Amino acid sequence: xxxxxxxxxxxxxxxxxxxxxxxxxxxxxxxxxxxxxxxxxxxxxxxxxxxxxxxxxxxxxxxxxxxxxxxxxxxxxxxxxxxxxxxxxxxxxxxxxxxx
Length: 100
Fold this sequence. Notes:
By secondary structure, this protein is of the alpha+beta class. About 30% of the residues lie in helices and about 15% in strands. The two termini are about 25 Å apart.
């Protein structure tokens, strides 16, 4: 693992993988478009939970405002929180490689 190409951002890793320089571990939705367009191919059909957490911090008085509630709901939807139907959705790491 010490030899080979190393990059320091997920965007560079996905770009390198799409150019055939190896594989990358990606996170939905960052690599979803490339998979949908065929630039990248999933190696495994299994998703893996990352174990990462996100926190929304605000003053108690502001937490009940409509703007904060709307922003909180948007964050939950984007980051994999409960969907309106109660099902879990969102981010998952994905191992991908070039489609060529």
